[in-house]
Specification:
Distance between the termini: 95 Å
GO biological process, one term: retrograde vesicle-mediated transport, Golgi to endoplasmic reticulum
Number of strands: 0
Structural class: mainly alpha
Keywords: Coiled coil, Endoplasmic reticulum, ER-Golgi transport, Membrane, Transmembrane, Transmembrane helix, Transport
Main location: endoplasmic reticulum
Order of helices and strands: HHHHH
Oligomer: single chain
Largest sheet: none
Subcellular location: Endoplasmic reticulum membrane
GO molecular function: SNAP receptor activity
Helix content: over 70%
């Protein structure tokens, strides 16, 4: 079992304990005033209500914590189960809150009835009435002081519960921000590797571009050299042809030898073929 599931189980146990305590407080409030001590039990009612309100505040805090933990459970099935439990707790909280309200109404009716009986007893006169008044005054003062201290402690505890809820909310926000930062870091690492691969591809393309340029330059140079060679050869042949024709026309070469003339004509024909090529 992971940490989140263990925290949910502990929270369930804490919820059951708090619900049991709240139900005990509700029963005490509902029975308040039934013993016939109207004034004393009326003074004790705020203390009981304060304890009940503390239980309700704890239940609200547990609902909030369960809602946060349910979203962090490892499997989708557990997440759905946790969210369903949150709804069940909300319904149970509403029922307990309504039960506390009804118990207060019943307690007020009981206290009112008991106070009426005490008033009738006090107005009846006699020694019992005198002793009763003195006891009521002493107990009323002590109860009032105790109730004042209890109320102060209850307010302090309520403030501490609110601070705990705010701290839990802050921690949840920090956890969410941490998860977002981790996600951003992982995305950055992915982009960084992609950029590294892209940089490598660009370097390869640049090297290939340089090689292609060198190949083109060498090819162009060879082509130009071939063209120059062909042109130079062609110019030489044409020059030789012109010189021979000029020599024949000027009579420098005798035209009486038939064999020589035949050879000369073959040479001129060959030059003409080369010229045509």
């Amino acid at each position: 079992m992971d940490e989140v599931s263990l925290a949910v189980e502990n929270l369930k146990k804490e919820w059951d304990q708090t619900v049991s305590q709240l139900q005990d407080r509700i029963r005490e409030i509902e029975n308040c005033g039934k013993s016939g001590k109207g004034t004393e039990e009326a003074n004790a009612l705020p203390r009981l209500n304060g304890a009940a309100q503390d239980c309700l505040a704890s239940l609200r805090s547990m609902q909030f914590r369960l809602d946060l933990l349910a979203q962090q459970l490892p499997t989708m099935e557990e997440v759905q189960s946790g969210q369903a439990l949150v709804e069940i707790w909300k319904d149970q909280y509403q029922k307990l809150h309504m039960g506390l309200r009804n118990a207060n109404l019943q307690a007020k009716a009981n206290i009112k009835k008991a106070a009426q009986e005490e008033r009738e007893l006090l107005l009846g006169g006699g020694e019992e009435s005198t002793v009763r008044r003195r006891n009521l005054q002493t107990k009323s003062g002590m109860t009032s002081a105790a109730e004042s201290i209890t109320e102060s402690l209850r307010r302090t505890r309520q403030m501490m519960v609110q601070e705990v809820e705010r701290s839990a909310s802050t921690l949840a926000t920090v956890d969410e921000s941490t998860s977002v930062l981790k996600k951003a870091e992982s995305e950055y690492k992915g982009h960084r590797s992609l950029l590294s691969r892209t940089r490598g591809l660009l370097s390869t393309m640049k090297r290939q571009d340089v090689i292609d340029r060198i190949i083109l330059a060498v090819g162009l140079l060879i082509f130009l050299m071939a063209v120059l060679y062909v042109v130079s050869k062609r110019v030489g042949v044409l020059t030789l042809q012109r010189k021979i024709v000029a020599a024949i026309k000027s009579g420098s070469i005798p035209n009486k030898d038939p064999i020589g003339n035949a050879a000369l004509n073959q040479g001129i024909a060959a030059l003409n073929v080369i010229d045509e090529l």
